[in-house]
Specification:
Helices cover about 20% and strands about 40% of the residues. It is of the alpha+beta class. The protein has a 4-stranded antiparallel β-sheet.
């Protein structure tokens, strides 16, 4: 019997001047971005940039890059 669990994603916000990295537990990469954006907003980070998402359980060549709003 297998149980599906949330994955751990490394999310990185890359702006012109900063790189902010955090770990997020989510069902998929899109949910990870959503949670990461909420975490950034809660800490006062409002910079625009690119969010890179990496599934830490996946092979190293699998990653996602999504635009931050």
């Amino acid at each position: 019997m297998s149980i599906r669990r949330e994955k751990i994603y490394r999310c990185t916000l890359v702006t012109r001047t900063r790189r902010i990295v955090g770990l997020v537990r989510a069902w998929d990469a899109r949910e990870a971005v959503s949670i990461y954006r909420e975490d950034l907003a809660a800490t006062g980070v409002t910079a625009r940039g690119t969010i890179q998402v990496t599934d830490l359980a996946a092979p190293l060549d699998r990653g996602y890059e999504l635009a931050a709003s």
